[in-house]
Structures are given as C-alpha cells and as structure tokens.
Amino acid sequence: MGSFLYPPPHQQVPLTQVLTSTISLSHSLTLISPQPQPMLLPPLPTTINIGSYFSYLMKCDTYRAWKSQFLDVLAIHDIQHVIVGDACPPTPFLSNDTTNPAHSHWLRTERLVLTWIKSTVSPSIVQNLLLPCTTAVEAWIILDHHLNPLSGVHLRSTHDRLRNLRKATTQSMTYYLIDAKSVFDSLSAVGFPIPESDFVEYIVDGLSPEYQGFITTLYLRPSTTFDELFDLLVQEERLQ
C-alpha cells in the first residue's frame, strides 16, 4: 500500500501565504474581467438651423413639397424614426431602476425635430396650428390632418375658399383671378375637380358691387370659360 509523500519541512509553504496568494489571484481576475460597456447612442445632429435646405417657408399650398423635403432632411441625419412609424420612445428607466440614457436622447432628438418643423413653416401656420404642440409627432400629425390635399379637412377648407371668394378693393383683378385659379387647380391636382362652370360662378359671385353691370351682361352669354372670363374682367377693370 503506497504512502503519501510530503515535501520536507524546509520546502513546505505556510498556509497563510497560500491563502494570501489565492485572494490576490482572485482579486486580479476580478480586475481584468470584462466590465459592462455603457450604451452607445448616436450623436445629435450638429445642424440646428436647417433653413438652407428650404428655399422658402412652407405655406398651405406648398405642404406636399415641404413634407417631401423635410423627410429627406430627417433621412440625412438618420432620425426619421422620430415622426414616422410607431414613433414610440424608449422607457424612462432600465430594469435596474436607473435612468435610461436612450430615453433622454430620444427626448432631445424629438425636441430638435419640433424646432425644425416650426422654423421651416410660415408664422401664420405656427400661430394657428402648431403653437400648442409640445412634440414633433403631434405637430406632424396636425399638419398632415389640416394641410394634406387628400385629407377631408383640407378638401372642405379648399371648397370653402372657392365659395367664399371675394375681390378686395385694393386687390388687382389679375391677382384675384390668379389666386382663385390656384385654388381651383389644387382640387384638380388631387383628383377632386369641380366643373369649370361652377368655378366661373364662384369668381363672379366674389366681385364687388361696381361690377354689377358687367355681371348682368355676362349672364346674357350662353356660357363663359375661365380664360374668356379672365380677359373680360381684366378689360372691365381698365374701364372702371
């Protein structure tokens, strides 16, 4: 039967030294073990003023062009997710109850986009539609609801503009007719045209009382196109 061989007494390592070495090794392994890496978030766009991307401020009749350009700008900065898709911000806190840096980053990005929206539309749109908005998503939805040519609200508003045409005394006839034609064309462009005869009647109804004699003569004609009415009214203005 074999026996265990022990090192001679002068070669034996004291127990305290073994324990100290073990603790030291454990501490060293802890120090070199991989640590959790902080969450890497994309930097916010450095371009605060994006006016250089737009040649003019958006008005009611230029919404579609503005929307297309604005989406391009968001795509350039890779932040279109703020207003398209689900647009759902990250949770404010992580599972360990610490503040979620992604949530804070989302809020700053979202507020930057809201600033971009308000700075690229006309002051009247900001005043009438966007003043109460506190988020980019809210502003985006309101603009689309009121200014998208295909929305029911916009179509009704455009029809109301035609029915309520009025030539101001300080307004030239040419300007009055061109403005009316732009409203008429906007309905045709989105697939909701109105008969030209109705359009002509809206224009005539918006004339001031000094054109009453002209209107009476006009109604003696069997029909009048817009182009014919344009020439007749511009000539009549010169006779006033």
Summarize the structure.
Helix content is 55%, strand content 0%. The protein has 240 residues and is mostly helical. The N and C termini lie far apart (136 Å).
Description:
By secondary structure, this protein is mainly alpha-helical. It folds into two domains: 97 residues, no CATH class; 88 residues, no CATH class. It contains ten helices and no strands.
Helix content: 40-55%
Number of helices, where a helix is a run of at least 4 consecutive DSSP H or I residues: 10
Number of domains: 2
Mean pLDDT across all amino acids: 81
Percent strand equals: under 5%
Total beta strand runs: 0
Query: Structural class, judged by helices and strands?
Result: mainly alpha
Task: Give me some keywords for this one.
single chain; 240 residues; mainly alpha; 2 domains; 10 helices; 55% helix; elongated
Note the topology.
Blueprint: H1 15-32, H2 63-76, H3 101-119, H4 123-130, H5 136-147, H6 152-163, H7 173-189, H8 196-205, H9 212-218, H10 226-239
